[in-house]
Design goal:
The chain is built from 26 helices and ten strands. With 883 residues, it is α+β, with helices and mostly antiparallel strands. Helix 17 (473-530) runs antiparallel to helix 18, helix 18 (559-581) packs antiparallel against helix 19 (614-641) and helix 19 runs antiparallel to helix 20.
Amino acid sequence: MRQLRNVISAIFLLFICGGFGAAYAEPSSIVIESNDDLRQIISQLSAQNSELRDSIASQKAQVSLINDQQNTILSQVSHVQNTLATLDEQGEWLSFSTALGETLRQQLLRLPEKPKFQPLDASIAESKVLQLSYSNQLDNLDDYPNLTDLTLDHSQLMQYKQLIREQSELLKTLISGCDTIILELTKLKIANRQLINAIDDVDDAAHRYFFWVADVNPINLSYPVELAKDVAFVFFSIDSLSQLYSATIEIINTPLTLLLLILSLVLVITHFKSKARYNHYLEKTSSRIGKVTQDNFSITMRVVIYSLIMALPIPILWGMIGYALQSDWDYPVAVALGYSINAAAPILWVFIISAQFASPNGLFITHFGWPESRVRSAMKYYQLSVWVVIPLVMMVMSFEQYNNRQFAATIGRFCFILLCFALVFMTNAIHRAGVPLYIDRKVSGDNLLNRILWIILLSAPWVAIIAACLGYLSTAQVLLGRLEASVVIWLALLVIYFMIRRWMWIQKRRIEFERAKQRRLERLAQRSKSDDEANPNSSSNNAADSIEEPVIDLDVISAQSLHLVRSIIALVALISMILLWSELHSAFAFMDNIRLWSSKSVISGVETEQYITLSSLFIAILVMTITIQLVKNLPALLELGILQHLDLKPGTGYAISTISKYIILMIGCMIAFSLIGIDWSKIQWLIAALGVGLGFGLQEIFANFISGIIMLFEKPVRIGDTVTIRDLTGNITKINTRATTIVDWDRKEIVMPNKAFVTEQLVNWSLSDAITRIVLTIPATIDADSDLVIDILKRVAKNCQYVLDDPEPQVYLVDIQEGIQLYEIRLFAAEMSYRMPLRSEIQQMIIEEYRKHDLKLPFPPLQTNLEALGRKTGRRTYNVGTM
């Protein structure tokens, strides 16, 4: 954005200089014919030369100013670099001397600030544009006429030529000056960058050296005396009230600051006036929660948005007051207080939001269905948080900022210890209320990870108190602040999880209600047919009103969807924690100094020794953790985010998910192994040798693995297909890396190696078309009317509910055996599960039709002879007593 502004400024200057060029191009049309014309031109040239001389003077002043800034910044860079060298030299002794740490901290406080933003790029562009303008003016001097007319005044003619030469020299000087300014501005830009980099290096080194070093003296018997002295000094020796009064007067006299404060105050007044309307809205919408015909997720979203908005005005006013006080640099007390107010405003907002959500008709109790007693128990110390925690946070931050931490070791540490005790009460109340920090697959907070997180949270204030007493005040403050911020983020994600869970619950209830309503209407329609025709619509008008709302248990909500939501939120939480704690990465640089083992690697043909540190081990564990989570949840993530929006063939999505899991697992393992010194170049020969050995010893396993990959790409079977392989028929339920699971008609699960599906004969009843054909052999006596039998069989096939009309059923007289007519009826069913119901129903219908038309099923007396005849002639044999 800054570069865009610079380009726009340069273009604007080009337009301006274009105008200047046009102005100086006018002499080409000037004709000097008299002394009056010459006198006028001389006057114009004199004015222009005067302006150019002023521009040269301005250039020199600008170059001098830039040089002064360069010298100042270069001296600051040297000072910062010397401080960094001192830190590197004395850093290892900091843990042995608190006085040395205090000395170095004071030296750090005297470091210069980072240079403020300067539009150097715009200034360079402006100088280049001005240089182009001066070049155009110099070229335009050639357009002035070269006067040789003897009738003109000789003295004026000489003055004219002198002014032309003088202007040419001035313009050349200005062009050279522009080059100098551009060069000096470039040097100044480089110096600013050097200073910023040097300050960043010092901050990083100070964070690394001082984070785990005591910054104040440990508490001893003299601490109460020092605390009393500093308290007395603050109340009686520092003119705090007068500074605050003077700062208030300046705020009132500053129009912009006063306007912001007035607007914030108007927001607060509006907030209190609209609070009754907000409570009325909560009460009104709470009556709709839980009713399937009235409940809607938009109600929850509006309650969340309104609660966030209603919680904003007071923190905004608080932040504006802090901003106004912090801008008065002449009053250190006001500045420190303003900084602390700004730091406490977000915490105040979180407390107010929690109170809004925990109201009787708010989000937690009404929408989430949390027990009111537990919510009240969690909010037991809300008044404590507002009237004790916020002031203590302000006092801690004020004494951290005031006069180079003059009172941080005494009053600031005492306030921090009181703040930790207040946090102990608050965390214990939330813990006793049963608020979970982690929810497992059973949607329960009773799990090991939840207990571990609560142990860390409950013990954190006590650890901070001990660290502050031992002198590690800054370390305790930073770590406790990051931990509490992590808890806020974690609880916010927990609220989001319950909101998504409520949305799923509403959708489930609505679907079940619509189904129940449809079943009710169907029952009413059937009842109306059998009832008296006098009142056919007696109860149809109020059918929807009389339906009882089904009670849906939350456990029936899709476990896969909830697991997916929980996994996504867990990943978001992990990324948030990494970003939140990334500011402290330099504080944990000591882990790079803990060497676990070493490994040799070849880089550009040179063998170098690489040390594996504790930091590398932790990063490798983190990479493997993220990899495992991605592999576990990737199918659901792909299905929800990508695959369901694509037009894919059946089974393609499963193949994509499986191959993606393999690729992610391989990449994650390679990255993790490389971090601990096991790279591909070292294990490739081992893998090759193992591959040869395992190829012989475990060839069946490898054959099944490769067959599984082939099945994923060729897709001879898919999940849900009905297959027949060997003497087994059933439905495919799982396709894993080594084997495929088939569930047969007896509900037994058979694990079949993948190799069988690739190398053996396979019948897939539903690969491209689920329609299956059924052939039934129907006998009739020799004297039966064949046309009547065929007509009966066709009519039966047409009336059977499982028989498809397309393809059309077919009936044939296929054979005559020893006084028996044999008919075949060829039928088509929509899927495999209809085969047995179809056979049963259609045979029952055939028997009934035979009885109606006095047809008899033949029973040949000479079964043995028929069987012998069938063997001799090869003709079709009818088995007695079956169809």
